[in-house]
Write a sequence for this structure.
C-alpha cells in the first residue's frame, strides 16, 4: 500500500462522478458484449464501477474516459469469467473477448438511445407490448404466450424479427442524422 | 450462414437461449469475420438499449451501487490488520441525480463475527439499508478473509468457522453462500434447515455438524462430522444425496456428485489464535520510488521498473532455474508503466501501490523467528503474472513461494502439508497460500526461518508476503 491518499477535490470529484454516470450505459453495453446472455452483467458493472472509483485519481480529466473504463471493464469481465467457469455455461473465450475488446465502445450511446426511442414509437402496439414483456422485470414471454393462446417459441421468433427491425431502423436513423 | 440466421443466433445468445454447439459456431464466425462482429455489436447495442429502457427503468436509481466499505477495505487492508472494518455504507451513483444517497434503515443483525488477531478480513455490506456497525453480520454481508481464521455465531445458534482464504456471503439467518474456501458449520436443532450454497452444491442441514469446501476452478466438497445433511448438485438438481456421519462427496467434472473418503480434519472447528511473523518490507513499499507519473528513473531501454533496486530487507539470489536475465525491481502503479497496464489493478487496489517485479531474479529473507515444534506455519503471497511472455531461456518455469530454515537460499526447504495455489491468470493476480506443519521433533528446530520468492524462468510479480504461526 502506498502513501495515504490526499483528499478529493470536490469539483474534480463531481466531474468524475458525472463521467461515471454519463457513461454507465456505454460501459454496460461493453460488458454485455463480452458476456452475452449472462445474468451477471450488472454485477460486473458494479465491480467495474468499484475499480473506476478506486482509480479515480489516476484518470486525467479531458482524456478518453470510455476507453479507460472499457479497459478496466475488460479485466473485470475476464476476472468474473474465471471465477464463474464452473458455475455457469462458459461465456466467450479469452481470444474472442480480446478481439471484441479491441473495439472500444464509442461515445454514441445517447444517440443510439434516442434513435431507439424513435424507432420504438414506430412499432405497433402488439410489437411494443412484446418488447415490454421480454424486457420488463417480472414479466415473461411464456406467460404472455399463455395469455395470447400461442406458443413461447412463436413469440420468440416474432421478438427476433422486431429486434432485427429495430436494428435496421436505428442504423437508418443514425445515418440520416450523423453526429 | 445467412445474415438473418446470424442475427437470429446472436439474439438467441443475448437471450441466453443458444445451444452450446451453435454458440461455438457463432464464436468461430465472430473470430474470423469482422462483418459478423459489427452485426453482433449492433445487436448488443439494441439489446442494451432495450434493457436500459425497460429493465432498468424501474431500477435506474440502483444501477450503479458502489459499496463504499469495500473501497475502504481495499485501501486500508493492511492498516486494519488485526481488526475488522467496522465502517460500512453504500454509495449510490445515480444515473439521474449523481448524488450520493445513504439509505436510512439498518437491517437486522443475524450473526456476530470474531476473528483471530492476525486476521486480514474485509467485511462489506451489499444490501439496501444502512450498513451494520462493528462486527455484526446481516443479510447481505460479505466476508473476504485473506489471512487468519474467523468465527460467525448466528442468532439461531448456528456457528461457522472459516480459515483464510475464504469468501463468504450471508444470504439470511439460515443461509450462507460459500464463494470459495473451507468452512465448518455446527447447526443446532432449532436452526435445522440451515443451508450452505457453493458454486456447485446446495447443502441443507438436517441437524448436524459438517464441513464444506469450494475451490474456484475446482470441485466442491461436503463432509459430515455428525448427523445428516442433504446435498444437491446445483447443475443436476435431480442428483441429490443424503450424507450421514463419516460420509463425504465432491463434485465431478460436470458437477455431478461423487462419493469420497471423508477428511473432517481439514476443517478448523474453533478459531485458533495465530500470530503474525514479521517480514521486513513485506509489501515492497519501503523503497519509495518516484511517483511522478513517469517511468522509473533507473531504467534502461524500454524497462519501466527500478531495475537496480533490491528491496530493503531482502537478498537477491539465483535459484538456478533460468539465469540469463536476472532482471527485477520495484514497480509503482502511480507511474506510467506498461506493466501497470498489463497487471492493473494490483491486489491492494491502491493507486500508489508498489510491487516487486521479477524475471529470474529471486529473493530471500532470513527471519528472526525460529522454527518451533508442533506448529503450523502459513505463508501467503499475492502473485501477478504476464503469462504471454515466455521465459528468457524459453522454459515455462513457474514461480514459487517457499519456507525454509537457515541462511542458505534453496536449501533446507520445508515441505508444505497443504497448498492453495490458484491457477495463474495472464495479466491478473492470485493469492497463493502454503501451509507447513511441524511435528514434535523437527530436524531444524531452533533454526531461523527463511522465506523465498522465486520467479522461475517467467516474469512474476510479488506483493503482500505474509507468514503466521499457530500452535
Amino acid at each position: 500500500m502506498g502513501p495515504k491518499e490526499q483528499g478529493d477535490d470536490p469539483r474534480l470529484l463531481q466531474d468524475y462522478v458525472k463521467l461515471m454516470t454519463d457513461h454507465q450505459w456505454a460501459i454496460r453495453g461493453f460488458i454485455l458484449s463480452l458476456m452475452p446472455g449472462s445474468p451477471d452483467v450488472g454485477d460486473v458493472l458494479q465491480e467495474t464501477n468499484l475499480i473506476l472509483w478506486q482509480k479515480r485519481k489516476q484518470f486525467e480529466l479531458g482524456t478518453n474516459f470510455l476507453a479507460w473504463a472499457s479497459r478496466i471493464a475488460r479485466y473485470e469481465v475476464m476476472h468474473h469469467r474465471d471465477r464463474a467457469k464452473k458455475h455457469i455455461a462458459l461465456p466467450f473465450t479469452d481470444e474472442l473477448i480480446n478481439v471484441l475488446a479491441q473495439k472500444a465502445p464509442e461515445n454514441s450511446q445517447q444517440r443510439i438511445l434516442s434513435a431507439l426511442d424513435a424507432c420504438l414509437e414506430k412499432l405497433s402496439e402488439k410489437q411494443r407490448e412484446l418488447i415490454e414483456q421480454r424486457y420488463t422485470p417480472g414479466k415473461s414471454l411464456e406467460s404472455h404466450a399463455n395469455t395470447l393462446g400461442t406458443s413461447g417459441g412463436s413469440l420468440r421468433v416474432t421478438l427476433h424479427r422486431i429486434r432485427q427491425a429495430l436494428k435496421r431502423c436505428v442504423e437508418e436513423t443514425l445515418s440520416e442524422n450523423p453526429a | 450462414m445467412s445474415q438473418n440466421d446470424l442475427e437470429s443466433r446472436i439474439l438467441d445468445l443475448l437471450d441466453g437461449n443458444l445451444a452450446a454447439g451453435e454458440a461455438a459456431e457463432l464464436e468461430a464466425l465472430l473470430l474470423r469475420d469482422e462483418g459478423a462482429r459489427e452485426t453482433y455489436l449492433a445487436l448488443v447495442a439494441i439489446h442494451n438499449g432495450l434493457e436500459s429502457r425497460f429493465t432498468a427503468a424501474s431500477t435506474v436509481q440502483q444501477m450503479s451501487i458502489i459499496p463504499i466499505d469495500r473501497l475502504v477495505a481495499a485501501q486500508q487492508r493492511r492498516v486494519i490488520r488485526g481488526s475488522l472494518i467496522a465502517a460500512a455504507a453504500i454509495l449510490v451513483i445515480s444515473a439521474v441525480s449523481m448524488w450520493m444517497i445513504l439509505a436510512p434503515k439498518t437491517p437486522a443483525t443475524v450473526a456476530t463475527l470474531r476473528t483471530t488477531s492476525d486476521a486480514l478480513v474485509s467485511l462489506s455490506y451489499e444490501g439496501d439499508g444502512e450498513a451494520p456497525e462493528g462486527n455484526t453480520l446481516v443479510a447481505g454481508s460479505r466476508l473476504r478473509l485473506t489471512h487468519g481464521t474467523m468465527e460467525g455465531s448466528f442468532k439461531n445458534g448456528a456457528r461457522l468457522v472459516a480459515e483464510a482464504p475464504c469468501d463468504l456471503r450471508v444470504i439470511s439467518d439460515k443461509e450462507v453462500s460459500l464463494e470459495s474456501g473451507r468452512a465448518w458449520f455446527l447447526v443446532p436443532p432449532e436452526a435445522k434447515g440451515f443451508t450452505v450454497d457453493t458454486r456447485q452444491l446446495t447443502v441443507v442441514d438436517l441437524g448436524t455438524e459438517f464441513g464444506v469446501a469450494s475451490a474456484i476452478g475446482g470441485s466442491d466438497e461436503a463432509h459430515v462430522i455428525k448427523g445428516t445433511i442433504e446435498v444437491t448438485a446445483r447443475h443436476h438438481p435431480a442428483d441429490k444425496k443424503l450424507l450421514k456421519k463419516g460420509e463425504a462427496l465432491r463434485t465431478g467434472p460436470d458437477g455431478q456428485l461423487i462419493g469420497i473418503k471423508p477428511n473432517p480434519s481439514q476443517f478448523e472447528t474453533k478459531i485458533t489464535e495465530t500470530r503474525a511473523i514479521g517480514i521486513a518490507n513485506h509489501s515492497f513499499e519501503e523503497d519509495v520510488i518516484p511517483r511522478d507519473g513517469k517511468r522509473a528513473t533507473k531504467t534502461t531501454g524500454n524497462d519501466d521498473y527500478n531495475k537496480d533496486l533490491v528491496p530493503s530487507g531482502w537478498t537477491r539470489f539465483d535459484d538456478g532455474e533460468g539465469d540469463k536475465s536476472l532482471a527485477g525491481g520495484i514497480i509503482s502503479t502511480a507511474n506510467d508503466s506498461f506493466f501497470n497496464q498489463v497487471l492493473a489493478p494490483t491486489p491492494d487496489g491502491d493507486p500508489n501501490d508498489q510491487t516487486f517485479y521479477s524475471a529470474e531474479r529471486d529473493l530471500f529473507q532470513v527471519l528472526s523467528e525460529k522454527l518451533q515444534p508442533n506448529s503450523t506455519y502459513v505463508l501467503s503471497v499475492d502473485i501477478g503474472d504476464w503469462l504471454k511472455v515466455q521465459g528468457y531461456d524459453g522454459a515455462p518455469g513457474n514461480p514459487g513461494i517457499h519456507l525454509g530454515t537457515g541462511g542458505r537460499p534453496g536449501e533446507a526447504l520445508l515441505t508444505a502439508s497443504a497448498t492453495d495455489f490458484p491457477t495463474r491468470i495472464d495479466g491478473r493476480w492470485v493469492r497463493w497460500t502454503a501451509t507447513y506443519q511441524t511435528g514434535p521433533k523437527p530436524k531444524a528446530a531452533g533454526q531461523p526461518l527463511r522465506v523465498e520468492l522465486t520467479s522461475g524462468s517467467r516474469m512474476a510479480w510479488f506483493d503482500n508476503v505474509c507468514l503466521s504461526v499457530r500452535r
User: Anything to note?
Assistant: Chain A touches chain B through 71 residues (CB under 8 Å). Residues 1-7 of chain A have pLDDT under 50 and may be disordered.
